[in-house]
Predict the 3D structure of the following.
Amino acid sequence: MSTVSGNESAAAFPGAAGRAFGRRFWDFAGWSICGLAFVLLGGAMLWIMAMVLLRGFHALTIEVLTHVTEGYAGGLLNAIEGTLILGVGGILLALPPGLAAGIYMAEFDNGRLAPTIRFLADVLVGVPSIVIGYFGYVTMVVAFGWKFSVAAGSIALAIISLPYICRTTEMAIRQVPRSLREAAYALGASEGQVATGVYLPVALPGVLTGVLLALAISVGETAPLLYTAGWSNYLWTGHLTNEPVGYLTYAIWAFITEPFAGAHALAYAAALLVTVFVLIISILSRLFVK
Amino acid sequence: MLRPGRMIRGMEETPAAPGPEHKEADPHAFNPKVTRFRVRGLNAYYGAKQVLFDVQMDIGAGEITAMIGPSGCGKSTFLRNLNRINETVSGARTEGEILLDDQNIMRMDVSALRRRVGMVFQRPNPFPKSIFDNVAYGLRINGYKKNLSESVEHSLRRAALWEEVKDQLHKSATALSGGQQQRLCIARALAVDPEVLLLDEPCSALDPVTTAKIEELLVQLKQTCTIVIVTHNMQQAARVSDFTAFLLEGRLIEYQATPKLFTNPADPRTEAYITGRFG
């Protein structure tokens, strides 16, 4: 077997040196652009985190965590409580329809209804949250006469959470191998029995991840709550209507523009608390992913 | 090693897999057929594509009926129509009549039908639960009122798995070997006491030794259960079944007693297939 010598084969491809230089140049350029993008994004994120942490840390005293807001000073206990109530309330309201729609889209994808629901869910994700707040204001706060309330705020958050729960449930159920479902059907199980006995247990981690994602988004929402929950300096007294509640994102929005250092401190503390909540939620959702 | 008397034209017995005794063409071995399934004019479609063309067949009670044919000929589709599991596939459509003991299965309650006609799939598919819960699943969902443990033990014995797992009923089913999992799936299907057991290439993912065990199992089971088995392995069909149906491109070409089909097929296409001229 003859081996072609390096020189002979190279002669068939003139200009190799120039091309090699070009390759190295574009390689370097490409990596540089990637590096620059990383630095910009990473830097921006670090800057935001640093600002929130440093300023918020100073402002987060025990008083902030145990007292309610008094004007532009005091604490954030009412806001923390309100955020939790509205967030959890929104999830509880969105869970049944979200789960049901997700299961339906995954299991009964036979006609036109499932693709329609999917499309509507995707549209709903794109609706600006302030529009949902406006809708909540016009219908619940004014027309129903609920005024600023936990009910209106929870429902607004539920509308925002619904498409996320819906889609992640559908994805999680689609991951369950078809063979398991067939095995259950072949034993005479009805659709409900297959749903609860076979694929919900297997899809549960995925569903929970979706729920936690929706919760993280709810915790950070401002605009819809401005028009449905209002603001209150007091702890919630248990009324679902006709009683506004506080929430952390209001404190961020309202207090940062005030000319009082105390108000700024509360705003930074609220920002830190929201960030911490989202962080805890993210860690929890990682624990569920096997 | 060739075993005399088992030489069938064009095929040799695989030495590594001894099978249960092959029935010679003894008229007394076959009772006059009590027909379990009567299939008339079966046409099946996946979307616009037709996969079964006017299939007509009678499946006898207490017998093992094998369905053979090249890939894509529609044998699995036919089987899946017998317990209506094809309805879970979107786009699947069936026309024609299938009667189980003279009742049209399309008009029966589908859960009741599937309790009477069980199915074992190609790849073992145990639930990610314990061995006990796997076998008990069918019993629980069908509202079984009596002793669950006894019934689970009985099914595992029928599937020849009891001795191997009796001390570990609470172990996860997914920890079993492939052959054990498939026998578990058979036990699970048997737990609800079906009249018919459908098996879709149950041994294709298994080794020869386990295959032999399962074939022995099927021969014992046919005393209490009608069995329809789809298989790619012609030797298996010859070893195990009483009747064999040969399908080609969605049409039933030949259907008769196994010894006759393999030694003296009526249709030239059948002969071409069983002698390996095409696969």
